[in-house]
Amino acid sequence: MAPVLSFGLNVDPNVGGLAIAERIARIADDTGLEYVGVQDHPYNSGFLDTFTVLTWLAGRTSRVHLFPNVANLPLRPPAMLAKQAASIDVLSGGRFELGLGAGAFVDAIAGMGGPRRSPRSAREALSEAIDVIRASWAGEPFGYQGRHYTVEGLQPGPRPPHQIGIWLGVLGPRAVRLVGAKADGWSVSAPYVPPERLAELNPIIDEAAHDAGRDPGRIVRLYNVMGLVGPEDRDAFHGPVERWVETLTTLHTEHRMNAFVFWPSGDRERQSRIFAEEVVPAVRAALA
Description:
Blueprint: E1 6-11, H1 18-30, E2 35-38, H2 50-58, E3 65-68, E4 71-72, H3 78-92, E5 98-101, H4 106-111, H5 119-138, E6 142-145, E7 150-154, E8 166-168, H6 173-182, E9 185-189, H7 195-211, E10 220-229, E11 238-239, H8 241-255, E12 259-264, H9 268-287
Parallel strand pairs: 1-2, 1-12, 2-3, 4-5, 5-8, 8-9, 9-10, 10-11, 10-12
Antiparallel strand pairs: 6-7
């Protein structure tokens, strides 16, 4: 089954921003949006631990799905990631998805004690991590021997109550092949992968999925959109509601992106409410 067109809001794990984080998550929950994402940069001294924040938000929402956007793999071993994800899925009643990244800020990762990986090694480690995580969620004892990860006689658990999606935050042509080959979704941001690059990368995902005997139409293609909703029509991501409707419908119909998470560049709570209450219903109506 192809993913249903979905929408979400970004929440930052700022130490001093918990009140607004909770209010934005509740906006998503109350207005029928599907997702709340939280970025994961453990080396940022101003950020709380993302998985702790996601667990906290799960207790303050009732229906919206929560995910790290995206989890920093080099600082989070895959067997432990699998247990954290399954635990939050249990505690939230099946409302957790796992965004996963290879780790872009190499110096910051190394400074926190993590491995300093080349792009090739990072891709290999990400591929191995998917195998370990899926095996952990299956709930049966297993072992794994890879170049980057070794698991010996793991007794995994708990099993997640719903089939957690693994969405990769990867950018390059070689890395996005892994989305088609092994993952359930792709989570990228407009500043790093502008719309014109989607036409280049989406076919690579499709080809890799076909090569692996998978249906590319079932892959979540999540686009993080940064900007503002307002009267000044500056560009695709800065303009009135009508401009945003045009932008998102085009991204869906021409570039097949099927999930959008809004990261307002200012006035975050008010902008999040405008997006949820005005932009999203108008996009849904336009595409109905």
